[in-house]
Amino acid sequence: MRITPSPVHLFRGWGYPGFPGVSVKRAQRSSVFHSPEEMNVIPTRPLRVDIVTLFPEMLESVVSHSILKRAQEKGLLDVRAVDLRAFTTDRHKMADDSPFGGGAGMVMKPEPLVAAIEYLRPQVSAPRVILTSPRGAVYNQRRAEEFARESHLILLCGRYEGVDERVRAFITDDLSIGDYVLSGGELAALNVLDSVARLIPGVLGKEESAAEDSFTTGLLEHPHYTRPADFRGMTVPEVLLSGHHANVERWRREQSLRLTREHRPDLFASAPLTEADRRLLAQWDEENFGF
């Protein structure tokens, strides 16, 4: 990883060599579900993602492998790790301080965080400024699709006891990835980055794979099988070996409906079911339960 003259780390081999930014109009906000045709429109500019953190090196390994690496090599994603300490003003580069009113732990200071936001905000048109914190709305696929249609995301990684409350006046989104405690926001930011990157048209090898992922359609995905056809007496369903594509698709849809109803009734309650879906479930219930 090399450090540019600007207070920004660029991952080795990817991203723009300076900090020129990209001038793009803010993308249209998305609906919850998208057709494959909508998801296949290749963007003309990369999605810019700035991750503001006290520990830029934590991000390099994840961003330098697999889908995130390929997305950057294809010019579809521009990820930058921004060192928050570069925006401090004291010689010790302190980004945190003790809380007013007393109490355990430290609080992240407002000045470096807001300075970073104000430095990065003009680089690309109308960015989403996202703070990862327990207070935020729980992150989901709908929000990932929304972010994938933006031109610029700024992810702020909290640490310690949290960030000074006044920073919230400068953000657009407050996100939580679940009801559990992490040591910092870096893992949460990578969670968001990975889920968004795979939705950018052209990133995945097969465009349909993103459209068919669990949650994208409002349902869990169907079971998957590969060779061998018989593993320790557990065999692949015959329909998948039949070569009959219509029957395979019917089986996959049936399994998706069944698994969602069984394991995620909360998702099933709001899933956009068709009359054909309801008939599939009714037939499956009759064949397996006799009703």
Using the coordinates shown, work out and report the CATH topology of the largest domain.
Alpha/beta knot
What's the CATH class label of the largest domain?
Answer: Alpha Beta
Helical run tally: 11
Q: Main sheet?
A: 7 strands, mixed
Structural class: alpha/beta
Order of helices and strands: EEHEHHEEEHEHEEHHEEHHHH
| Amount of helix | 25-40%
Strand content: 15-25%
General shape? elongated
Average the pLDDT over all residues and give the rounded result. 83
Gap from first CA to last CA? 62 Å
Number of extended strands: 11
Q: Can you characterise this structure?
A:
This protein folds into two domains: 2-207, SPOUT methyltransferase, trefoil knot domain (Alpha/beta knot), CATH 3.40.1280.10; 230-289, tRNA(m1g37)methyltransferase, domain 2 (Trp Operon Repressor, Chain A, Orthogonal Bundle). With 291 residues, the chain is of the alpha/beta class. The protein is elongated and about 70 Å long. 34% of the residues lie in helices and 16% in strands. The strands form three sheets. Strands 1-2-4-3-8-7-9 form a seven-stranded mixed β-sheet, sandwiched between helices. Strands 5-6 form a two-stranded antiparallel sheet. The chain is built from eleven helices and eleven strands.
